[in-house]
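Replying to the earlier thread about multi-chain prediction with a worked example.

Input:
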Amino acid sequence: MPRRDDIESILVIGSGPIVIGQACEFDYSGTQACRVLREEGFRVILANSNPATIMTDPQFADATYIEPIEPEYLEKVIEAERPDALLATLGGQTALNAAVALHESGVLAKYGVELIGASFEAIQAGEDRERFKEIVASLDVPGAFPEVARSAICHSIDEVVAAAGELGYPVVVRPSFTMGGVGSGFAHDEAELRRIADTGLQASPVTEVLIEESVLGWKEYELEVMRDKADNVVIVCSIENFDPMGVHTGDSITVAPAMTLTDVEYQRMRDVGIAVIRAVGVDTGGCNIQFAVNPENGRMIVIEMNPRVSRSSALASKATGFPIAKIAAKVAVGYTLDEIPNDITRETPASFEPTLDYVVVKAPRFAFEKFPTADSTLTTHMKSVGEAMAIGRNFTEALGKALRSLEEPAAPLRFNGPLERDADEVLRSMARPHDGRLHDIVDAIRLGVPAGDIHAATGIDGWFVDQLELVCEVAKAVEDAPELTADTLRLAKRHGLSDAQIAQLRHIPEAVVRGVRWALGVRPVYKTVDTCAAEFAAKTPYHYSCYDEESEVEPRDKPAVIILGSGPNRIGQGIEFDYSCVHAAMELREAGYETVMVNCNPETVSTDYDTSDRLYFEPLTLEDVLEVVHAEQQAGPLAGVIVQLGGQTPLKLAQALKDAGVPVVGTSPEAIDLAEDRGEFGKVLAEAGLRAPEYGLAESAADALRVAHEIGYPVLVRPSYVLGGRGMEIVYDDDSLVAYIDRATTITPSSPVLVDRFLDEAIEIDVDALYDGRELYLGGVMEHIEEAGIHSGDSACSLPPITLGQEVVDRIRYATGKIAEGVGVRGLINIQFALAGDTLYVLEANPRASRTVPFVSKATSTQLAKAAALISMGATIAELRQAGKLRRDCDGTAPLRTAPIAVKEAVMPFNRFRTADGSWVDTLLGPEMKSTGEVMGLDETFGTAFAKSQAASYGAVPTHGSIFVSVANRDKRHAIFPVKVLADMGFKILATEGTAQVLRRQDVEVEVIRKASQGPWPTGEKTVVEAILGGDVDLIFNTPQGQSAGGSPRRDGWQIRSAAILADVPCVTTVQGLSACVQGIEALRKGTTRVRSLQSWNAAVEEELRRR
Amino acid sequence: MAITDQVPALLVLEDGRSFRGVSFGARGEAFGEAVFSTGMSGYQETLTDPSYHRQVVVATAPHIGNTGWNDEDNESKRVWVAGYVVRDLSRMPSNWRSKRSLDDELRAQGVVGVAEVDTRALTRHLRERGAMRCGVSTETLDPAALLERVLQQPPMAGSNLVADVTAPAEEVVAPSGPKRLVVAALDLGVKDNSPASMAARGMEVHVLPASSGIEDIRRLRPDGVFFSNGPGDPATADDEVALLRAVLDEGLPFFGICFGNQLFGRALGFGTYKLKFGHRGINQPVMDLGTRRVEITAQNHGFAVDAPLEGDVATPWGRARVSHVCLNDQVVEGLELVGGDGRLLGFSVQYHPEASAGPHDSAHLFDRFADMMEGARPARAGREGQASESPALARGGEA
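Result:
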């Protein structure tokens, strides 16, 4: 059946900002979908609030709306564009929920929009646990007895407790209609159950939770299933979780294909999976079905299904070469699977099941170091912020590569060195699922603990435990070998040991291992991911390394550019860097280069085999990158390696690559080092007459105190060499300085601590610019809404800068040019300035693509990363202006009447983390970055743009209701005016006693509310926490009282902010944020908010630029 | 065995390419046709499939042996492959049904295995050059010496292997539940799940030695006749083709699988040919040309039927046509024979509806067989009532 011709235009909804549980996998799927639909001749309308996505690049849709994914905004998009159909199965749970809301409110019916991909009924059947359970139980599958875990649906705590009584503890709590397992958990007793279920009921938009028999410790599997409208069904991939049931699959190490199923068991799972997708009625597209298998008797249970593409589908696509989202989009518009060619073989159809001749391992990346008080126990509630995938010819090789891909020094297995714990202690530790469990197992093996005991303690399948024993034996063989022979090295390599691990085992430098290995000719070969285990020839060079005999890298004539990607998402380095890498690949391919991508993040667009000419799915370590470079140098001419677009990951390899003779293009490694070196960088500033905040380097605690006294409090302290502000803190006095040094650093002369003067009440400014050696192009100037001191990644900002005059912008341009010249930039540079009084301070400069490049590119309709890639390869800014790739006569700061005001807002993961005692971690912002993603609000006025950014980041500002105000003493003066404005608009103002007094003096009517620490009044007046939880507060304004000493914030403020997370009430923690809120509220109250596509904005700007 | 202390093994192909690996299973030397199988699960079923007789099977899935060896999943009474080549052999089985390791089972059955081979390189070689003779050895580690012995082996084309694999005597598989139908099943190397699948649908299955004649079939008064899968070159199976024609002459509903499909093709007047490297895996898309539905099928065939994909061909029994085609390469995957009244007289598929290993998408073909037999009953009853009017022995064109 060919493409449907009864629809012409399709609205695609994206997944919004990156949050835990929903990351750039939906940019990958959405980008594929948009591309396919446009190729098929449909008019594509896209709605997504996330500017860092490739899918929101204007060329991927006919009309791109960077607007909040909220029903009211989507309705406006539908009203403006009148699409025939809505495809919501490629934008994660966010898009699916939005589609359900649009259906239920009658919007889809009103405008005659058909839901394609999955019908409303199918979505409900897949998502509604009770109906799903009925469906599974009613399936007729010969030879299988489809069942789900026994369970009960509950709407109140009483029902929950009664249900658990019948099922027996432990039980699982799963709220309905939440993503990534928000609010779910295991309860071992009633107290625990009450706590978890209470959260779960609140997290569920329909106040509903499922209480379920525990399958804790069972083996966990997933199937990725595709179905077309002719009812053809294929299983794209099976995935087995290394960690048994109980750990969210996003937090588990997962393996593809399934490793420990017989064909009989696998086919039973397949039969049930196919029956499920048919019965649920996902008629056109993909879905993901999870199973649990009892290892004792093979009893199989269907856990859940997602009637949409998911994180696992992205993983499965990368793991198999079968592009699920692309095919899902095609079947959604009418094609049957047999009509769609397999991209990789080009000759065979997509109606087949990929078969793998390699093993894929995905490992989660955690960020517990960012939330030191958070409990690191892994549960059904996802906590990882990213993932790395690796491909090897066996499990051990893939595991070793996956762990070193995580870019976490502690991640790779350690086979020697002292063991500080005894066997009992190690076994106890591994019984609790946590991010260090693999190390526990390796330690246990080294201590001689039998595999059976490890399996008993963890539930991890014996086969996996044996594989770890195998790696340990290999490591022992390496350690004990009289010398490093080719055979020993090959053995080590075939089981995934890195040069660094071998070096550690042999007590020699890594470079020596590499030298010996190369001298002995032990080098990897590159195989191809081809969907068919080599049965047919692959046309797509999607490679992975292994230590087999035959390499499949084809020779080429065109000069190649290797682009190093950014690795797993983590806080501080996310999708924004992938965006820049993808742009470079697209641009350089167009410029005639053969583009070669190296990356290990399966969620990304960069690891789509369509993005570059060649893809190497490899860890981004020096060893792995050098081998790729070697292979490509053997294949043909190499024009250069780009390291400055993928963030810190490739950047930190720059010098070593250059030392190894690799042609690093763009900004030189020496220049990168110079920018990182305080002293050298200080000279650059001094020569240009620029100022930096005073600072000092402390090699001991006493030293730090001395420096602090010299420059004066408050000071910003941090270890040297960090990204994302890790370990950074602002301290206001001696006590907190000493406490910080004790807690957060290992201060020594070789790892000193930086002490900077902190500029109180300064405006922070972010700049992205291009420099070609002669000319500067100022891409954009962003003014932070929060004051300096909040990490730039967590701060909202506005472009154009909302309060800065042209004179300041000119000073910034001058300073940026001087710094770019002094450092020696060839490409992008990001600089942070602070304007204190009238003095411009330079806070830091990063000669690389920054997190804000996509935001600036979209706000100014200028592709900075593409320009940077061309500059790296020798183009000049003058040429790029001439070619129309940069603005011809001005730059990104040109004051244009037609340009939008763009506001970027960060999205925080606080609702994911709890402390060990079950309470929420604090939500305070500071110099350490904590956000996972960002959104963009675009409008003609700042107020509306800001309001949109808040709505898009799940903190929509209220237009009426009650506002609770509690501010630190130093903020009280500044808070009066905005609070008064709100009161004048009719908001009821609630405040604690101290704040209330100040406000009353300003003639603001205030209702006093009790602090949590005061407890409820006997006559029943609520405390503020109770009021928030009770839904009596619509906006919270709370600035931190005093400073965190020893990392634990003051209790009252923290309880307020915790309640805000729980009740999902927007919580503003800075005065500047409140002022922006007030403007947003004013704009919204006018009720004239409109939506406008990026293409429409850009056309207006183009027109104005032409007329200038 | 320590990981650094393994017994070397060698694989040599008839074109001289060799691969080194390490021994598992039995030590010794073995020869056969090198073929690759792309299934990711079901090595136990594969190894015990008689169709792999005289073949050295290369598993493309890298980890083999993970679920050990159990007592339920064999497809015949023994392991049939001549040799087994894998990348990574599991050191320990992990499955609740496992009774012993693959390594132990192959050693007990005297089957030579080679592990740690670059199976992907080997597979690519076979894909490009075609399936070919090979030898695996732990005794002859000199490639030239082993090559010499490889070249002395008979090629697969022209080999008649049915006698090696067929049952020595009739065996009856009782129906589960009430007996609906009686089937005469010619064992050309049958996999156990074929009669089991029929028995599950109420058929009493008489598994007959391949040397059986039409009298042996008549004696059973069957409702239908089944020809199984099996090894070897269908062009050599003249006796079985003659028997199949006699079956059609009798008006007995016919169902064939794999080798049975090839013989059906020959009986209908089509030729057969050897594929370059065959179809061996459990992910092969086949389209039913009647319904346009796609099924994911288990396949294991090195030969195929040469028949026109479109249009009917007249035969002495009715119109024959291609019913199924492999979407990867348009190879004939099924045939059907339809009488003048449009009634289905016989059908066959090149792939394996009995799966084991593989997907169950095509299990409904056993239902189709049952329906065909039940639908044929009144007609046959009528004909048998007309006393001794035996059908003419008209024959179609020679294969």
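The first strand of chain B starts at residue 8 and ends at 13.

Feel free to reuse this layout for your own posts.
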